[in-house]
Specification:
The chain is mainly α and about 290 residues long. The protein has eleven helices and no strands. The longest helix has about 40 residues.
Amino acid sequence: MYLGGLVCISVFYCATNQFLVQRVLAAKNEWHARMGVVFGDYLKFLVPLIITVPALVAPKLFPDLEKPDQLFSVLVANLLPSGLVGLVMAGLIAAVMSHLSGAINSCTSILTNDIYLPYIKKDATDAEAVRFGKMSGAVVIIVGVACSAMFISHSEKPVFLYLMNAYGWFTPGIATMFLLGIMWKRTTNAGALAAGILTIPMSIVLDQAMPGMPFFNRTGIVFWTCMIVCVVVSLMTKPKPEAQLAGLIWNKESLQLPEDQRAMNRGIRNPAFWWAIITAAVLFFYIRFA
């Protein structure tokens, strides 16, 4: 599980997810971007306290709770004083709105730049592209609301499990493209495309053939299969010229900050120092409690 589905979904979420990528690209400079990502690791480390601990104590406090998805709201309403309830809900709504804005921005950007401009209207003006982005964003919101209502009304399991299961359907191909694309210069477009095409059909076949398999294990199997397929297809196709790969492959030079920012990278201001601490803590908990 740890070397399969967990690695795959983590690579997708932390390295290719637009919610994070947009924030990194908006950083003041590269040093701030790196420190922001590391700081996010520390915030993520607190998630078990926010999610797991309440889930452990809730069955004792509210044994008759009908739907697990109602747990957070029930705990807030029953355990917090009135003032804190409003503060927590305001923070929750702000977080949801931030998350949704990133998702809608990503969807409209993909639909406009990858579908509308190349295939529907190649000579579209900026105003027409913006108009299409607004309309597609409205459609995405309507579809999202409809899907949410469907999950709430007809789901037999917590929505989070559906979300993680859905991640496992398409993330193996994306994680494969990203990892091999930045770490192996022999990767080709055909290899990446083969991995992307294989992801969903193979996930469906495994899900139908072995419905009892945990989604982490299924995701891991699909992920490593996509990696192998990408490597094989890349070796069988023509590689890209070295000139086209300049600045795209991860190497030692990629780890260095620009000259004007290296003074910020010394001592405890080095992102690697704080990354090593949080990584050691995570590994300790995995080894200790696995």
